[in-house]
From TrEMBL:
SUPFAM superfamilies: EF-G C-terminal domain-like, P-loop containing nucleoside triphosphate hydrolases, Translation proteins. One of its GO terms (biological process) is regulation of translational termination. This is Peptide chain release factor 3. It is found in: Cytoplasm. The keyword Nucleotide-binding applies. It comes from Thermobifida halotolerans. Belongs to the TRAFAC class translation factor GTPase superfamily. Classic translation factor GTPase family. PrfC subfamily. Increases the formation of ribosomal termination complexes and stimulates activities of RF-1 and RF-2. It binds guanine nucleotides and has strong preference for UGA stop codons. It may interact directly with the ribosome. The stimulation of RF-1 and RF-2 is significantly reduced by GTP and GDP, but not by GMP. GO terms for cellular component: cytosol. GTP binds at D98, T99, P100, G101, H102. Gene3D superfamilies: P-loop containing nucleotide triphosphate hydrolases (3.40.50.300), Peptide chain release factor 3, domain III (3.30.70.3280), Translation factors (2.40.30.10). Residues 21-288 form the Tr-type G domain. InterPro entries: EF-G-like_DII, EFG_III/V, G_TR_CS, P-loop_NTPase, PrfC, RF3_C, RF3_dom_3_sf, RF3_GTP-bd. Keywords: Cytoplasm, GTP-binding, Nucleotide-binding, Protein biosynthesis.
Amino acid sequence: MSAPADTSGHRVTAEIRNEAGRRRTFAVISHPDAGKSTLTEALALHAAAITSAGAVHGKGDRRGVTSDWMDMEQARGISITSAALRIDYDDRVLNLLDTPGHADFSEDTYRVLAAVDCAVMLLDSAKGLEPQTLKLFDVARNRNIPVITFVNKWDRPGREPLELLDEIEQRIGLRPTPLNWPVGIAGDFRGLIDRTRDNTYTRLHRTPGGATRALEQTLDHAAAAELEGPAWHQATEELDLLDEIGADFDEASFLAGRSSPVLFGAALPNFGVSHLLRTLIDLAPAPSARTDTTGAPRPVEAPFAGFVFKMQANMDKQHRDRMAFVRVCSGRFDRGMVLTHAATGRPFATKYTQAVFGSERHTVDTAYPGDVIALVNAQSLRVGDTLYDGPKVEFPPIPSFAPEHFAVARALDSGRYKQFRRGIAQLDSEGVVQVLVSDVRGEQAPVLAAVGPLQFDVVRHRMEHEFRAPVELAHLDYGLARRTDPDSAPVLHGLSGAEVLTRRSDNALLVLVHNKWRLKVIQRDHPTLLMEPLLAGGIEEQN
Ligand code: G4P
């Protein structure tokens, strides 16, 4: 069947609109250790989606193993792949798409941001904006994703709140509009004043280990002044200052990515987390029309369409499988629908569709715009591919990012060359690495290109354990890639410190160069040769 039995009429349209309106699809962008896993747990806890903190991410001695699906990851205590988490709260559905939390960059992280409608920028109160936060923020900005800021770890010594706001404004040009304000300096956290509710003061009591909802007590201002003393007076003075400079929430500039509502809190003891939940519900945009390749907006109530933003193989050792994570953009998804794969025009059966909740998978029968569905056995799909029902629609591809690390791959056992080829092709189609080839190097020695070096560890591990074709990876001394054309390629290929290869996925001609100084020299000596920057997180690379 290609459509559910009751698609006709206004009822379904109204249902889809209503369901889309209930959804908030977002990701947390942060630097490792800012507290993303802790915040994820706290959000789920507050929403009563799980009974005690610790069931979402398998980290340290916390229970449960979810995205940490490879032995290698566990050994390193990081999660390379991501899962989607659904949180039901107050008649709303929050879909939290996990961005990998390690210090390394991979395309995966960026792609997740192609599939969300909002981002929570999580800062450590003692550290402020850190490198990976900045990089991810750039991607969010470039995609026009509205950003809510959560300043975490307020229970620990940190920086002044005004200083943190200033850093946000000065370094990334985002106007901070605090929704709440802390009473007590970082490390001596007393409570929060809610600027959105007549400066209501909520005093917070720590709960051991943060394993249950923090106890919150609302106090009137006179009682607060008496109890908190100088801390209260300082906070109210700062609030007056904020009022004077007009740092109030402004919907238009938030949605346009020019201002960011800021919340202070502490994820570990569950301080201020419920305010973040409410903010996501009240302020984050619901799914809206997505532009297709013709430039036409596809309304949420149009027939089903979605795109693959992530591929993941071998999540479950018991069942060797390959999953495509699809962000639903329009229509209602009903399990069993036969969709069309836009890239090939072939039908795609959806009998085995799942939703992933933490470590568990559930069969999903129905999904709406904003939801993420996982299609099992999706061998034919690639990242960026569109699936649709009814008349053809295709969404623009997710840009592939500028690789900065390159290595030649060779099969260690030449008797397993067939498996080697299959494995490399598979990793290319999943977007784990980009595969570059040239006549000079030959098919036996493709060049693998990655955004971060950790991607090579993934290749090594999967080639050995999944494809049974161990590889040797020889690092190449190139640091950047540029797009070129058939006229420029032969000249560039003859220059020292440069090499031209073809990207297998789209036949683009890329020239690899040692470093930006070498690039400058080549550009100066050969100004007519094409050396076009690739997209870095959707942003023109800067040199
Ligand atoms: P990540 O996913 O962003 O990498 O960070 P994660 O949640 O693992 O948090 C990093 C460390 O910061 C953890 O401590 C965590 O307990 C702590 N943390 C997170 N939020 C808060 C907070 O609001 N207040 C305080 N005081 N600490 C916070 P760890 O000792 O490295 O790990 P663990 O043994 O607790 O897992």
